[in-house]
Write a structure and sequence with these properties.
The structure is a single chain. The protein is of the alpha+beta class. The chain has one domain. The chain is built from two helices and four strands. The strands form two sheets. Strands 1-2 form a two-stranded parallel sheet. The protein has a two-stranded antiparallel ribbon with strand order 3-4. Strand 3 and strand 4 form a beta hairpin. The radius of gyration is 15 Å and the shape is globular.
């Protein structure tokens, strides 16, 4: 088994197939590298259009990598108080 790194870290998140999503190219849940052996996907597409407006409670925007790295540091016991 490979150690967790940026090439296979998406296995630890639920990714989105991006079906009919207008913002999928800007969402980390769609653009993250997928695990070759194990990957979780949403059973239902999390985004929806209501009153001609798209919303998605699971959208993970441009700062996703920064957030991921902060969470990884916290779980690894590194100090993030200055972040």
């Amino acid at each position: 088994m490979k150690p967790l790194n940026q090439n296979n870290m998406a296995a630890d998140i639920t990714v989105c197939p991006g079906t009919d999503c207008p913002v999928k190219e800007k969402c980390y849940r769609f653009t993250a590298p997928k695990s070759e052996l194990w990957q979780s996907y949403f059973l239902e597409i999390p985004g929806k259009i209501e009153n001609n407006k798209f919303t998605c409670d699971m959208y993970w925007g441009e700062k996703a990598e920064s957030i991921w790295n902060q969470l990884k540091d916290i779980t690894d016991g590194k100090d993030n108080t200055g972040v």
